[in-house]
User: Fold this.
Amino acid sequence: MLDISDIRRISYDVLIIGAGGAGLSAAISASQEKGIKVGLVCKSLLGKAHTVMAEGGMAAALGNVDNRDDWKIHFRDTMRGGKMLNNWKMAEIHARNAPKRVRELEHWGAVFDRTKKGLINQRNFGGHRYPRLAHVGDRTGLEMIRTLQDHGIHQGIDIQMECTALDILKDKSGKVAGIVCMYRETGEFIVFETKSLIFATGGAGKAWEVTSNSWEYTGDGYGMAYEAGAELLDMEFNQFHPTGMVWPPSVKGILVTEGVRGEGGILKNSEGKRFMFDYIPKKFANETADTEEEAARWLNGDKNARRPPELLTRDVVARAINSEVKAGRGSKHGGAYLDIATERNAEDIKKKLPSMYHQFKILAELDITKEPMEVGPTCHYFMGGIKVNAETTMTNVNGLFACGEAAGGMHGANRLGGNSLSDLLVFGNLSGIKAAEYSKNISSIPKIDDNDIRKIIQGATSILLRENGSNPYLIHEELQKNMQYNVGIIRTKKEIENGIKEIDVLKNKFKDVKAPGSSQFNPGWHEALALRNLLISAESVSKSALLREESRGAHTREDFPSEREEWIKYNIVSKKGKDGKMETTKILRTNPDEELKRIAHSELNDLEKEVKIDHNKLKV
Amino acid sequence: MSKRDFKIYRGDDERGELVSYKCEITEGMVVLDAIHRIQADQANDLACRWNCKAGKCGSCSVEINGKPKLACMTRMNEFEEDQTVVITPLKSFPVIKDIVTDVSWNYEQNKKITPFSPSKKDTEKDFVMMQKDVDRVQHFRKCIECYLCQNVCHVVRDNDAKEKFVGPRFMARLASLEMHPYDRADRISDIKNDHGSGMCNITKCCTEVCPEEIQITDDAIIPLKERVVDRFYDPIAMLFRKIFGKKK
Assistant:
C-alpha cells in the first residue's frame, strides 16, 4: 500500500496551472499581493507554452493607427464575430481593459513594431473594424511570452517546470485544497496544497488530426475541472483556422498567420478566381468590399474603402475554403491558394512576415515572395471552456478559477483573431487578482483527505504496472481520426452520433491503457495520462454539438444550415452527473445589460458618431 | 517511400548506447516526425522534447549527425538515402534521459540578469520609439531559446567554465536590454564581472548555429565587449572618472 507520508508536499496561497500568456499574467498579478505565496506549474519548460506560436498580434483599441477606434467598437466587433453568443460582461471587460494591458506589457519590456510617430503599430485583422493588432512582425506570441517570463521570474513566483497536473483535491465542503502533480523528468509525484487554483491550461485541439496545436493541448484543465464538479460551457464551438499548411503531409495543420491576409494576401481557387467575394454573409455585406478594385483601394489606405472579403471572420473564411475544395476547385493538395507575392514586394513580405517566409522556405521548400501558399482549415482554438463568473473568473467550484482558452464565454460562437492574446492578458491579470483576494480571506489551507491523494496516484501508476493493454498513441490517433471525420468543421446528426459511439469505444480501450517503461521521462505514460482529459473534452464537444441544432459561428450543422433565433437564448453546459456519466444540457442565458446590448446592436455609423462625441468630450 | 536507418541515443548521463531503428520516410518529413513515428510504433518510452513543430519554440534541440539542430526544422531530404541519421543529446548539458538534457543552468543565468528597468516617470505615458531605434533590439528578441548557441560555445562546452560565462544566448539578451531606448539600468560592470564578457574569444560558433540567424557575435557580444572596454580600460575615461567621479 502506498505510504502517503512519503509524498512530498509544498504549500501555496495561489497556484496556477499553465504558463502560457494567461498563466504567467495570472502569476504576476497574484504575486503583487503582499503575503501571497504564488506557485506556477507548467508541462513544458518555461517559455515554451503554446502562446509562443501566436503570430498575428493582440487586439486592443489603442487608436494609434486610426484614432476613431474605441473600446465600444472593439466590443461591437467582438460580439458580432461571436454571433452574439459571447458572455456580454466578459466581452466588455476585455475590450475596456485590453489597451491598458498592452501598454503594461510594453512597460515590462515588450518591443512592438512602431508607427511613424514612434507608437505601438497596429495591423488589420479579420472582423476588426480598424487596424487594432499590436504586433511584432509575425512572432507576437514569442514576444509576449518572453516578456512575461523575463518579468515574472523576478516576482518571487515559485516555478515548477515539466510538471503535469493530475487531479484536483478538495476538502469535505467542496473547496479547493490542492492538486496532485507529477514531475515528468523523474516521475515523482507531488502534492501542492493551495487555497486557490487557477487553470490556465489552454484548449484541447489535439483531439483532431489536422491541428495547429502542440502535444500540450490535451484539455487537461477541462478534464480535471469536470472531474472536480465544474461545468464546461459551449464546447461545440471549435475554431478551425482557415489557413493551416496543407503540404507536405508532415506539417499539415501548422498555422499560417491571418497576418498574411491582414497585410493584403488574397485567396484564390484552382481556376485563379478570388472566391471570397462569393461568400460574403448578408450581415457583413455593408461593411465588406464587393469589388477587387475597392479591396485594392482599402489596401492602399483609402479610409472610405471597405475591407476585403479575405478579412471576414474565421468561421466564414474556413467554410468558404472548405466549399471550394468540395466543389472541386481546390489547390493541388486540397486547399486554397493564399497569395501575398502578387500583393506586396519581397522586401515587405520578409519584413512583415519573417517567420512565415522562414517556415515555408524550410518546411515546404516554397518561397512565399514568389509563389502562392497552399492553405486549408486547421483546428485552432476552443471558444468554449470552463464556465466562470465574468467578474471574478471563479468557477462553480469554490477556489477554482480559470482564464485564457481554458475558460469559456468570452468569444461566443467564434473568436476574432487577435482577441486571444489580449484575452490572456486581461483575464490572466483578473484571475490572479481575484484568486489572491479569495485566498486572503481563507485562514488556512482546507484539509485534504489522504485517500483522495492515494486514489489519484494509484490511477496514474496502474498505467505503468499493468501487464499489457492498449497502446496510448494508437488510441490517440483513433480519437483524432474520429473527431476529424465525425465532429469536424461541417457536422451532421448522424456523424456526431457515430462520433459519440466511437468515443465510448475508446473510453473502454482507455480503461486498460498500458505504457511500457519506467516512470522517468516516459512520453508513452504522459500520453496515456493526458488521454483521459482529451476523451472528456472530445465527449463534451460532441454531445454539445449534437444538442445545438443550428449553425452559428464555428459550429456548422449541415442538417441545420443557418442560425436559429431560439438558440441565441441558450448556452450548452456539460457536467459530471451523479451516476458518473456526462450530462449535457442547454441553459438559459442571463439577460444582458441594456447599454451593452445597445452598443452591440448599433449601426456602425451611429456608433462611430457616438464615439467621436465621446472622444471630443475627453479632449476638452 | 523508403525505410531509413536511424541511431538514437538511449540512456541517461551515466550510461547509454546508440540504438538502431528503421523508419518509413514519406515526402516532406523532418527528423522530429521520424522520432515521433519511432516513439509511437517501436519505442513508446523514448524521451524527447518538442512543442510547436515549426521552429518557433526551441524545444527540440538535439545533435543530428553531430551537428546541433532543431529536429523540427531538419528535413529528411537533407540526408542521402543510405545515410544513417544519428540523433544524440546536446553535449554541453547533462542528459536526463535519451535525447532530453537538463537545461536548467540556462534559466539560472537568465535570473542573474538585471531585468528591463524603465524609469517610473517613463511608464506613466506611452513609449515613443522610432522603428529604426528598435530594429536591433527586435533582432535579438527573435531568440527562441533553443540553446544551440550555448551548446556550441567553446567556453560553455570545452572548458566547462559555466560558472564564469553566461553564454551567447544571454549576451544577446543583455544586448537587447542595454540597447532598449527606455532602459535605465547600468549592467556594464555586471557584464564584465558576473556575466564574463571577456571569456568569449569570438569564434562565432554561436552565430553559425542560430536558427533565427541572429548575429550574436557581431551585433551583441562585440558591442558589449566594446562598452566594457570603454568603461574599464579607456585611459582618458579612467582619468575622467578619477577627477569627476563615477558615471551614475
About this structure: The CA atoms of residues 435 and 544 of chain A lie 29 Å apart. Chain A touches chain B through 66 residues (CB under 8 Å). DSSP finds 18 helices and 20 strands in chain A.
